[in-house]
Sequence to fold (800 residues):
Amino acid sequence: MRISDCEFKSSPQSEIRIPHPAFIGIRMRDWIALNMTPGVGPRAAARLLERFGSAAGVFGALRSELERLRLRPEAVESIALRDRHEAASEELERLRAMEGADVLVLDDGAYPTLLREIADPPVTLYVRGAWEACLDAPCVALVGSRRCSTYGQNVSLMLARDLAARGVTIISGLARGIDAAAHRGALEASGRTVAVLGTGIDEVYPREHKRLASEILERGGALVSQFPLGTPPVAENFPYRNRIISGLSLGTVLVEAAENSGSLITARLAMEQNREVFSVPGNITSRNSFGTNYLIKSAGAKLVQTWQDIVAEFPPDIAALMLPPEPKKGRRVEPVAAPTDLSENERRVWALLSTDEPAQIDALAEASRMPVQELTGVLFGLELRDLIRQLPGRCFVRKL
Amino acid sequence: MRISDCEFKSSPQSEIRIPHPAFIGIRMRDWIALNMTPGVGPRAAARLLERFGSAAGVFGALRSELERLRLRPEAVESIALRDRHEAASEELERLRAMEGADVLVLDDGAYPTLLREIADPPVTLYVRGAWEACLDAPCVALVGSRRCSTYGQNVSLMLARDLAARGVTIISGLARGIDAAAHRGALEASGRTVAVLGTGIDEVYPREHKRLASEILERGGALVSQFPLGTPPVAENFPYRNRIISGLSLGTVLVEAAENSGSLITARLAMEQNREVFSVPGNITSRNSFGTNYLIKSAGAKLVQTWQDIVAEFPPDIAALMLPPEPKKGRRVEPVAAPTDLSENERRVWALLSTDEPAQIDALAEASRMPVQELTGVLFGLELRDLIRQLPGRCFVRKL
Fold:
């Protein structure tokens, strides 16, 4: 699915959330316990849920049924003994005591719609701050190398600022380099930003981003994580974080990445999740741009020059709110005469275009009986000379 | 037509050229006179040749026939009076006196095959230097801004050097900036380079490239132009030069170009000529890379990171001579075991791949029942982890 096919909805949490706090507590506890169960990652959790329907169902299952699911022995043991329920109760207490903290579970209406759509979504999402407002807006992930160049840092800041100023929530991973610049750009525009953590939401990694994390919370942003409170920064957790970064977002923008950068993995995850992947080109002599250029060249990532290139791929109704309106059409204007210095082919194509009705490239190819590649060249030439304008969907109109 | 569909042949000049010098002289004179006729550019010449078959035919035509072709009055007048024939004779004398100079005409077997294929090819091509050896090799055009950055200059030099070292002839326009760097890169590699001029082949523009032009001639390169001897640098002639640059080449590489750069026009001409268009990305904060990034984003130009990206689009037999050979297949090697940390989807795709038989992406999509975009993501992930290799035509094999 491309972004433009995605139906974008705000989460209908208010209608669906079940009001009785005691019941919610019990239900929550099962989910949190499931998330804490040793040997149960998102993949095993998905297998369990497919079989038993809910966290409560999992904990009500017979040991023999569990054993048939090829789980690790310690997982079967833990579920059968419900040995994480006490820790889960404590977790809920601690969450209640933490200002602005909450936990969303998979069968909760508040769980982010886009994240639920990925394969094996995390069963719990710990949140802190203004997560509802942040995730209700269209979200874009900006990611890239920790060891980035000044160019990468500037571009990350600029794109985040430009997007956030137009109501887009910037999702990133609170890491050094590109991530931090993305969060800061959103804050500079007084926009929204969400930091997805590989630790618990009560931890901050790296330590020097403690102030940045506080600022995100204070200024209308949010922290989210799938990991229980107190989870320290463990290398193996960060790939899970990356799945959430791309999973929460309509699209992921790779700002800068060297050849073997972990950010390329996030881009791959976004592709696997059928989300749009964008990439910022850079000098081919810069090792920090190797990965981003490669992604455009070999993996079909969309090249980004400005924030508009990202918004243009949003679902049309959202894009329309952010992109400058097309010139008014109401009053008829005298059509511009064909310039006299057009080539034969240009004249042919020009004659097929109007100022009012966009013509699609396939229709033009048929009407002009030109091969599409040649036609593309002619259209591009007319566009370069500012005679025509390209609209989304490879449609073309004459300029007034 | 894509490059890879082009049949690439050396010009069969030796078989076709007609040996009797007197006759050649007469035939040549007609072509040169036609090329010198006022009001007859390549487009009018093409109309005349379509109607009368050859330059001799044009000059044998009745005035009334000429008038029916909607030529400019001065063109009709000049052709009817054959008033350029004396100048053409002098031109031939001067060419004979100039070391290594010659003129190729449209019906001559020596006329470059690729150039003949474009719409309205120039009727004469003045050449100087080792043009046969240069044009017998696969040719690539490198073009870009005159006012370029150091980055652009370095990249032009580097790509030209890398390509020329592998036997590719570098075509460019002898202009300041990117063009000069391209010629110099080819010379550095002791390779071949052709400067296409907007002046006569006895003039050099800009003046400060006089030494460069001599060096090109001395070191096995060539100068070519469609314009008569002594033609001074006139702005309106340079677009004609650009058509020849792209027309002689299998593909055109745009190295650096600002928003309204003339080099974008050369890229457009290459597209209209159905030749491959390549573009070198650069920092989005550099105005010199605006045009090159835009061409990748909006006009389907192929992104270039290294010389291999250009050669990979050559016809397969030529590319094979330049690209590193695939590892030998003869001896059977034990297949690599599937890595244990693959995802479900990765395992599925891995199982469909072999080390010997390339699998095409559409076949993989069908066999794996995965949508192509998702499959692309999975394949890209396997490629990133160095487990598989992509071959031309979106085919994939396991790495050994």
